[in-house]
Amino acid sequence: MTGLLLVGTAGWVLIGILVFIGMVFLALFAPAFNLWLQALAAHAGVGMLQLIGMRFRKVNSQMIVLARIQAVRSGLELGTEELESHYLAGGNPMLVVRALIAANRANIELTWKTGTAIDLAGRDILEAVQTSVNPKVIDCPNPAGGKTTVDAVAKDGIQVKAKARVTVRANIDRLVGGATEETIIARVGEGIVTTIGSAETYKAVLENPDNISSTVLAKGLDAGTAFEILSIDIADVDVGDNIGAKLQADQAEADKRRFQAEAEKRRAMAMARAQEMKALTQENRAKVVEAEAEIPRAMAEAFRSGNFGIMDYYRMKNIQADTSMRENIGGSGEKPQTPNK
Question: Would you say 218 and 188 are in contact if contact means Cβ atoms under 8 Å apart?
Fold first, then answer.
């Protein structure tokens, strides 16, 4: 009886172990089995151990298998190791495979190494391939920046507002390290400003707007960028403000204020000088009064010393009277001051 009990216990333990192994098998192989079967049906075989290894390495096995299937069905030989390595590096294997397929269909030379490098650089490799096949149009300036026209001033001082559309095609070889669309927009805008600024009059720009596009296009603005400029078309040209007249008016206003300030300065200096002269006049008058006050003293001293007699005094009075009479006849109206006795 005891033996049967031991046999029954061992049986249950064995069953539990088998159930555990079955659960582990299902956990590991069940998700991978569907992917393995899908790859097998598409003739893009992926090993079961490889799928299990992807699970342990935390790789999106479904993306890897789908990318592998698309590559094989399109005639591209890409192994799971390459796809998995690019995924672990932070790339998007599915996007690169789709870009390779599009490039292959369009007879564009694009290798797996170049595609992964572009993808890891943060560029949209699929969009780049599509742009190589179907060029896109870039507005200059970019409306997202808040400006809708490139403003420049001709030599006659009239402002001209222009809007350009640049048709570009992606250059796959220069996607890594090449400048972006912002550089194209900045260079085209600079070329438009230079061309308008060198025009003699604004009328010349309005008459031949194609001169702007041809001049700008001849500058080779796509050098060092990830694009090739196919054409530059002037979409719109408008006349703006008379900047020259405004600058002249502003300069005249500034000159007016400067001259007013200088005139005010001179007026203030003149007023100060006038006050100084008034003070100097008062000072001189005081000296005259002081000198006149000394005359009676001098005359008295002359009388005492005998240098000035009574007849001299009367002759002086007669001279003063004659002088006063002549002044009254002449209409001066001023009377000489008589020294005090």
Answer: no
